[in-house]
Amino acid sequence: MIRRVARAATLARSRSRRSAGAPVLRRTVADLRALAHPLRLRMMELFAESPKTTKQVADLLGQPPTRLYHHVAALERSGLLVLKEKRRNRGAVEKWYAGVAQQMQGRAGGATAAARRGARRAVAATVFEQAKQELMAMPAGAKEPALLARLVIAAPQSKIRAIRKRLFDSVQSMGKEFRLETPEHFSKDCERWAVTVAFAPVQSPSLRRSPERQ
Predict the structure, then answer these.
(1) 171 part of a folded domain
(2) Is the whole model's pTM more than 0.90, yes or no?
(3) Does residue 12 carry a pLDDT above 60?
(4) Sheet harboring 81-89: ordered strands across?
């Protein structure tokens, strides 16, 4: 009985700690490496919006379906894509896939520290290269300009998790409010915009000078 009470208290403390900060979406190094490819990242974004076939994603990306099949297979092996259903269409079988995660955070378990760092760097390079290309491709006469902002803040360590949660919740809220439910949305008066968020320390603790040295 005492053990059960102690275990329940431990679980309660664990839940309390988790709820205090932003949710952590743990991914393995294999998951992160699977996304460290510009085309796969774009595919995952489309599959995460709503279930689609490989052909529908290929049409949206302007790519031949044959180029995407091995990428779909790799994402499915990594568990990032799941087969939702199969449909008969004119004698053929259509496979509808859906993405299992829409936000990725840079934590990966089950691997060495070097492998985790390498996977995080690969994903970061892919994500921010994609964002750079989208910003540079904005036409001069666009009705709405792109938004690019960088803010450096100073906050005590005790508030960092709360700030992370505010950012995470904002992204989650926008994703739910403006979620594209069906592929037909793309043919209507609808533009697709990307939101890329990064929250990281500007310098490592080892580089900070103590007050005595300043």
Answers:
(1) yes
(2) no
(3) no
(4) 52-53, 92-99, 81-89
